[in-house]
Design goal:
Layout (H helix, E strand, L loop, with lengths): L3 E4 L14 H12 L3 E5 L8 H7 L4 E3 L4 E4 L2 E5 L4 H13 L4 E4 L4 E3 L5 H8 L12 H4 L4 E5 L6 H6 L3 E7 L2 E6 L4 H12 L6 E5 L5 H6 L2 E4 L5 H6 L2 E2 L7 H8 L4
Parallel strand pairs: 1-2, 1-11, 2-3, 11-12, 12-13
Antiparallel strand pairs: 3-4, 4-5, 6-7, 6-8, 8-10, 9-10
């Protein structure tokens, strides 16, 4: 029975040096030859994954944790953050000296010229500090934003802005997405387009933004390097991403 394989990028496909292990590439190519469909499911934006999509020849992906979905090269679902809500968050954050980064499918821009927190977290994605465009959110659809604050400063955002979700992905940064917009809702939108059933999906991930995806998928695999909560919820825990974890999982599941 052909499966739809949903692959997170950072810490799942890419190792701790942000490189794609040769074993993972080989496993994916073999799985495809065996009739399985490959899709990316990531918190990143489309413009941040063009290199890996090209390298793996994948044209189906869930990005921005479910807000922007493409099937066979065509956008099939887009959900922007409400612009007035986003402006309220922007003003609230500005009063607290918390910069914001706005993202659409093509690029990311910053509310501030340079900030060390933006620099630190965006560098982990191997991306340069974004250019400044303070009013970007007023004239453009924004599918995901980032607010830069430390963990102990985060709760006020949850309390004040109930109509969006804040998910921490870095020491100094939280994703902002429309309420309930997750990789899980992305999967539901995607399987309608691919014709797969939920039972035929296998999710591979490592982070907290993979939890709902793992809960909804027919079967789920967490990487050994993953968050403890993610490993607890997964159907199966494979080896570390740096130790051929993905290829080993594919073998274990008889996908290859």
């Amino acid at each position: 029975m052909p499966k739809l394989l949903l692959l997170d990028i950072d810490g799942t496909l890419l190792d701790s040096h942000k490189k794609l292990p040769a074993s993972a590439k080989e496993a994916l190519e073999q799985a495809r030859l065996n009739g399985h469909d490959l899709a990316i499911a990531t918190g990143r934006g489309p413009f941040m994954i063009t290199k890996i999509l090209k390298e793996l020849n994948i044209d189906t992906y869930i990005t921005f944790n479910g807000q922007y979905i493409v099937h066979k090269g065509q956008a099939i679902h887009k959900e922007a953050i409400d612009s007035s809500t986003l402006n309220d968050i922007f003003e609230y954050a500005e009063q607290r000296n918390h910069p914001i980064v706005f993202m659409n499918e093509k690029k990311m821009v910053s509310s501030i010229d340079f900030h060390p927190d933006i620099d630190e977290s965006i560098k982990t994605l191997k991306m340069p500090h974004p250019e400044v465009h303070k009013d970007f959110h007023l004239n453009n659809e924004v599918y995901q934003a980032l607010v830069f604050c430390e963990k102990e400063e985060e709760q006020q955002y949850h309390d004040t802005f109930k109509q969006v979700d804040f998910v921490r992905w870095h020491r100094v940064s939280c994703d902002i997405t429309p309420k309930g917009g997750t990789k899980a809702s992305g999967i539901e939108n995607l399987i309608r387009a691919t014709g797969h059933s939920i039972e035929e999906t296998i999710a591979f991930g490592d982070g907290l933004n993979d939890l709902q995806m793992m809960d909804i998928a027919g079967y789920s695999v967490a990487m050994e390097n993953g968050h403890e909560e993610t490993k607890k919820r997964a159907s199966y825990v494979t080896d570390h991403v740096d130790n051929d974890g993905l290829a080993k999982a594919f073998k274990h599941l008889k996908l290859i």
